[in-house]
Amino acid sequence: MKRTRDFLRIGIVGATGLVGRTLLKVLEERELPISSIKLFATQRSQGVKLKFKGSEQVVESVDKANFRDFDVVFFSAGKDASSKLVPLAIGKGCLVIDNGSFWRLRYDVPLVVPEVNFEDALKHKGLIANPNCSTIQLVVALKPILDNFGIKKVEVSTYQAISGAGYKGLEKLLYEIRTNEVNPIISNHPIAFNILFHSIPSKYEFSEEEVKIVNETRKILHKKDFRICATCVRIPVTYGHCESVSVVTRFPFELDKLVETMVKAPGIKVVDEPEKELYPTPRLAEGTDFVYVGRIRKNPVEKNGFLMWVVADNVRKGAASNAVQILENLWNRSPDKIFKFKGMFR
Ligand SMILES: NC(=O)c1ccc[n+]([C@@H]2O[C@H](COP(=O)([O-])OP(=O)(O)OC[C@H]3O[C@@H](n4cnc5c(N)ncnc54)[C@H](OP(=O)(O)O)[C@@H]3O)[C@@H](O)[C@H]2O)c1
To answer: Which of 23, 166, 224, 342 has a Cα at 20 to 30 A from 254?
Structure first.
């Protein structure tokens, strides 16, 4: 395939955040041909210096961004920034890959996990959304099961690292461990030595996070009525989300065959020798891009049911690495889609 250009001019909005800094690191590790990179955040971060491939990059206020200067802009700056600035960037011809939740469910915005539904990315109109961290690892683990055995029902409970709440979340945990006092950002409850729920709108309702994992899974798998429900909590772990997943398949399976399909699936590492204390943990996943699966066992109270434990680094595979993998796949498989498209806000 003929490329429109041989290099990429990249912008990152939200570069000083946990995901933004990890994006820089992941882009450094990968082979993409980047000719320039510019970093943006709020005014308070203006002048902060971050390293990329040995040279210092100075962070600018996003108010000064001229989106004409980029081929691709990664957004990891939250809902508000994305809602206002993504249309501007697309209007100036950029391809945007957005980590925030604002655009994810819009019908004309592909929501993409490369191992699961990369083809959706090819239909973009200037914007590709990165799913929520807890959704990404779940759909990577479900995909081989869906393809080989069908899925009737999924029940998932998440145990999410506090870095999922950004750098303020990490600060809260570390402060509370150090001082044994509550830091009231994010929640009035302590997270240290504790477990918290995400915000819940009212009694008897699901939290926003629980609704996200359900709706996003349905969109990515192209199954509007996919039977799935979730309970999501935050735990006092720095990096690495864990999920206890109960699946009922459409067709009967032999456990060995089911495990074999997972071993062969892209993006998954099966670590399942619990008798030797080998099973997925947040510390195992931290700093890697794999979705780790273990504790696979038949569910004794569900016909065609099994249980598994799924762990991934929320800031890498759950955010930055997934976003970079989307771009890498486009660059390798359909580079024209990076440079030539009819933008949705033009
Ligand atoms: N953390 C995760 O595990 C994770 C996983 C998946 C998706 N996400 C999503 O990724 C996004 C970033 O998350 P994070 O964890 O990196 O958060 P974070 O650590 O709190 O960082 C937020 C970043 O956004 C910048 N920012 C905030 N408001 C802005 C605005 N109005 N204009 C420009 N920049 C703005 C901040 O700049 P300053 O430093 O100047 O304040 C900072 O660089 C969020 O939408 C989050 O939901 C996060």
So the answer is: 224
